[in-house]
Design brief:
Blueprint lengths: L2 E7 L5 E7 L8 E6 L9 H12 L2 E6 L16 H17 L6 E5 L1 H12 L5 E5 L15 H8 L1 E6 L2 E6 H9 L2 H7 L3 E6 L8 H10 L4 E5 L10 H18 L15 E5 L7 E5 L2 E5 L14 H24 L5 E12 L12 E12 L4 H11 L3 H7 L10
Helix pairs in contact: 1-8, 2-3, 3-6, 9-10
């Protein structure tokens, strides 16, 4: 997917490294900023999957490393909770100066807590989504264990988090304990989406309940069921992104893409204008997009025309073999049809009537699963050539075009 590397100045004056995930076709429908979890980074799997998934659907997402983490400069040991909030506000300002003002904040874990506070300070944020976020920044102190005493005695301590060692100073602890997060929630004017896993071992779901209770409407809650705190399973990260999209569309007032409709037995195709080639397809009650690959100027948002042609032939082939096997009572469990189209020189085709130029060649490889004997398999291969779409492609076709 297309992206831009983005560098901007953080709250401490150090340059912060970001990556702006962009839609593969057309202008972004909206802009968002993703705040990663405590001591993680912009390239953690959850942040990557969610940002790219949203970009696929038209929402450009900036994910960046907080001060002293990942590729961002600065000293993490001198940072505190408010630094994350200020870094987020710097990211919002940097995007706004580029003419890409974000209206959505997404925060994971402590990044979600910071996103709530930052959105309360930014008038342009219309919606904020939290993922496994604590209601109180002091909640993160529990992960320091016995090191808290050393921090308070010595002023700092080395703390191991997620198999990495970080220097945490007393200012961070004091800031986390004293920050008025309930006040920030009371000042929140953006729409809120709280997402949390009931079995989260790092941040109890009670924290999500506290956020939801303290915030004013409009607010929504989505349970992440079996997800872990870091969303290490891609299916969980994709579910989060797919849940954010319709909610964000509603609250950011993003118009739905233009669609077409068709009656039963009719196919209607219309250009969307999203890129030079994207088409909206309606086949009775079914809808999808067609497009061309990025290599030829398309957005790769759907199958290409020849892909659709091959799909029709493949589906018809499999259906016809299954129907025939069922009628005969044969044990065909599954049919798989792999197809490929290419242009070949007519002189290389021994059984083609055309003898000059090029001809279309479709290779069709069929795999049959089930305890079929040799004769049954041979007959089903023969039947494959008799599927209606196969016959149509081999017969004379007349296409009539008129203007409405």
């Amino acid at each position: 997917m297309p992206y831009e590397k983005l560098s901007f100045t953080g709250a401490s004056g150090a340059p912060l490294a970001g990556r702006l995930e962009l839609p593969s076709a057309g202008e972004p429908l909206a802009f968002a900023v993703f705040a990663h979890c405590f001591t993680c980074g912009k390239d953690i799997k959850a942040a990557t999957v969610i940002a790219r998934r949203l970009a696929e659907t038209g929402i450009a997402v900036l994910r960046f490393d907080f001060t002293g983490l990942g590729q961002s400069q600065g000293d993490f040991a001198h940072q505190h909770y408010r630094s994350n909030i200020d870094d987020l506000l710097c990211a919002i300002e940097a995007m706004t100066e580029r003419g890409q003002a974000p209206s959505l904040l997404i925060g994971h874990s402590l990044g979600g807590t910071a996103a709530l506070a930052a959105s309360a300070k930014s008038q342009q944020i219309k919606a904020v989504a939290t993922i496994g976020a604590p209601a109180d920044p002091a909640h993160v102190l529990a992960s320091f264990g016995e090191k808290i005493d050393e921090i308070e005695t010595e002023g700092h301590a080395e703390v191991c988090l997620a198999n990495r060692t970080f220097t945490i100073n007393q200012a961070f602890v004091e800031e986390a304990r004293s920050y008025a997060q309930p006040q920030a929630l009371a000042q929140l004017r953006a729409a809120l989406l709280v997402m949390h896993a009931p079995l989260d071992q790092q941040v109890s779901i009670d924290q999500a309940a506290a956020i939801f209770t303290a915030a004013k409407h409009p607010k929504s809650f989505i349970s992440l069921d079996k997800a872990d705190h870091l969303l290490t399973r891609e299916i969980d990260a994709r579910f989060v992104a797919d849940s954010i999209l319709p909610w964000a569309r509603y609250h950011l007032e993003i118009p739905e893409p233009e669609s077409v409709s068709a009656r039963e037995g009719q196919v209607v195709v219309a250009s969307t204008g999203a890129n030079p080639f994207q088409q909206a397809l309606a086949m009775g009650p079914h809808h999808l997009l067609a497009d061309e690959p990025q290599s030829v100027g398309g957005g790769n948002t759907g199958p290409a025309p020849y892909d659709l042609l091959l799909a029709g032939l493949g589906a018809c082939t499999s259906m016809t073999m299954h129907m025939y096997a069922a009628r005969k009572g044969w044990p065909l469990e599954r049919a798989q049809v792999a197809l490929q189209h290419e242009k070949i020189h007519a002189k290389d085709c021994e059984d083609c009537e055309t003898r000059s130029g090029k001809v279309d060649a479709i290779q069709r490889r069929i795999k049959l699963d089930g305890p079929l004997d040799t004769e049954q398999r041979a007959k089903l291969l023969e039947i494959a050539d008799k599927c209606p779409v196969h016959r149509t492609l081999h017969s004379e076709i007349k296409i009539t075009s008129t203007l409405d």
